[in-house]
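wait is this the right file?? whatever heres the structure
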């Protein structure tokens, strides 16, 4: 394994590949990638892969927003609601201000 820094725009290894290389569970690596995305350090580009952000985001406010979204999604699932109902509820709440 090569150690060093990753340049902005560099593609990071797929979750399964990195998990095998490091001897970790894929879920552990996926969780780390999600945390780095929430901090604005990684950017997921769908099937093209995950990349180092061109410029690291502040991460503070955006990370808190992502955390709140994860909390909302978890609570909605607990209550038996899916993505469509959750999105409608969020849109209504945002309009109320």
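ok assuming it is, sequence goes like this
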């Amino acid at each position: 394994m090569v150690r060093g820094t990753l340049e902005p725009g560099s593609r990071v290894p797929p979750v399964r590949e990195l998990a095998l290389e490091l001897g970790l569970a894929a879920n552990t690596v996926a969780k780390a990638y999600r945390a780095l995305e929430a901090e604005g350090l990684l950017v997921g580009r769908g099937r093209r892969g995950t990349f180092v952000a061109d410029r690291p985001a502040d991460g503070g406010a955006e990370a808190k927003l992502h955390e709140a979204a994860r909390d909302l999604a978890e609570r909605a699932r607990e209550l038996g609601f899916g993505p469509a109902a959750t999105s409608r509820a969020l849109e209504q709440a945002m309009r109320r201000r």
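The first helix runs from residue 15 to 22. so i think its the right one actually
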